[in-house]
Specification:
The chain is of the alpha/beta class. It is built from 15 helices and 13 strands. The chain has helices spanning about 5-40, 65-75, 105-115, 170-185, 195-210, 230-235, 235-245, 255-260, 260-270, 285-290, 305-310, 335-345, 355-365, 370-380, 390-405, and strands at about 50-55, 80-85, 100-105, 120-125, 140-145, 165-170, 190-195, 220, 250, 280, 295-300, 315-320, 345-350.
């Protein structure tokens, strides 16, 4: 008879096992240090040496978040270890001074993370100390940096509760965090406004590249993934309507869709093959596709803010009232900042106005009120414009100096 263990139970058992192993490892390590100290004449060399900076990225698509910070941090002469969950992460090819990148697969990744010895750990991955990724007793400070210019409470529940510090880009994010801390009786985390380093880099790159060459009016369809996402809700209907506009159409699904929604993606790509009017885009770097698109249609994807704030172009968005029951935002009474922002950035797509999508597109592109809206949203969510990586690096150095010698 085969023994079946469901995924949830398996994850729980793995977590318990990691905890037991971690406690035993820590105790044995401390005993070893004491013995070495006792029998080594009171000296213990090169034992318990911490890595100054560890950066953890669970996926290769977040290298753009960390690259500008790594470039500045490496100049300080302190060791940086970059741990990635992707074997083809561009970070693995990075040759910055004082920088080393390592790939760790599956459970080996979390085992490595749970036994880290570091002064500072920086990550954009939520869920620290909630699932498999546990806080290491040999790490002094865990810092979170968001990977989009939007709510930090749109992570799965308890996503940021156990970080020591959070890097932010807008006051509304700080308010949300403080509200959650009070509701859950959590100690206050250290909050610092640094801005959005990866968007700073995109803006600089766009300034150098200039506008896209002349092209037919181009619509980019770039949804998120999941049951509430645009392609799951509308399927091929929205592609049909877009093709009827006569405009050039680019469909750029979320990378996770090709894993978690493979059947749907295979079906859509077979029903709507590439043509002169339609293209499917899976570029790792989205700079070119955003640059040559005139308007974006999306749902609650963070690419909305990349597109509209960096490239200064309008958006059409689907109903943002998706199920919040699994997210930190569920605890809060205030309307999502994203909802108020979207109303200023473009127009909402509904079942009722779907057939008038061409008119919506033309209005969003021509109406000057949306340009004013983009300016106001940018002021609220992109502090320290152009200097985010410098501010982030200065903060990391500060935290390292506070923990050095512990």
């Amino acid at each position: 008879m085969r023994l079946y263990i469901d995924p949830g139970t398996g994850s729980m058992l793995f977590t318990i096992l990691i905890g037991v192993i971690g406690a035993a490892f820590y105790s044995l390590r401390m005993l070893f240090i004491k013995l070495r100290y006792k029998f080594g004449g009171g000296k213990v060399e090169n034992l318990g040496k911490k890595i100054p900076f560890v950066i953890f990225s669970d996926n290769k698509r977040y290298w753009n978040i960390f690259e500008p910070i790594c470039k500045r941090l490496s100049a300080y002469g302190k060791e940086i270890l970059y741990i990635t969950g992707s074997p083809d992460d561009a970070a693995l090819q990075c040759d910055l001074p004082n920088f080393k990148a390592e790939y760790a697969p599956g459970n080996k990744l979390y085992t490595k993370l749970n036994f880290l010895e570091a002064n500072v750990v920086l990550s954009t991955t939520p869920g620290l100390d909630v699932y498999q990724w546990k806080r290491s007793k040999m790490v002094d400070c865990y810092i979170h940096i968001p990977h989009a210019a939007s709510e930090i409470v749109l992570y799965r529940m308890f996503g940021i509760d156990y970080y020591d510090a959070i890097m932010l880009s807008g006051d509304y994010q700080a308010k949300n965090i403080r509200d959650l801390e009070q509701l859950r009786n959590l100690p206050e985390k250290e909050l610092t406004m640094i801005g959005i380093p990866y968007m700073d880099e995109m803006a600089k790159r766009l300034e150098v590249s200039g506008p896209a060459p002349d092209h037919p009016r181009t619509v980019l369809l770039a949804p998120s993934w999941g049951s509430s996402a645009l392609l799951s809700v509308y399927g091929g209907k929205i592609i049909d309507v877009l093709l009827k506009t006569g405009y050039h159409v680019i469909v750029r699904p979320h990378p996770q869709s090709f894993t978690s929604e493979k059947e749907m993606m295979d079906k859509l790509m077979a029903e709507y093959p590439e043509s002169d009017q339609l293209e499917w885009n899976r570029d790792t770097d989205n700079f070119d596709v955003l640059r040559r698109s005139d308007i974006l249609i999306s749902d609650f994807s963070g690419v909305i803010f990349d597109f509209t704030l960096v490239y200064d172009k309008p958006v059409i968005y689907t109903d943002p009232k998706f199920d919040l029951s699994l997210y930190d935002a569920w605890w809060l009474e205030d309307e999502l900042w994203t909802v108020s922002a979207l109303k200023r950035l473009g127009m909402q797509l509904t079942d009722e106005n779907m057939e008038n999508l061409k008119e919506l597109i033309d209005t969003c592109i021509s109406d000057p009120s949306f340009a004013d809206g983009r300016r106001s949203v940018k002021e609220e969510t992109w502090v320290n414009f152009g200097n985010g990586a410098d501010a982030a690096t200065a903060y990391l150095i500060k935290k390292y100096e506070e923990t050095e010698g512990k």
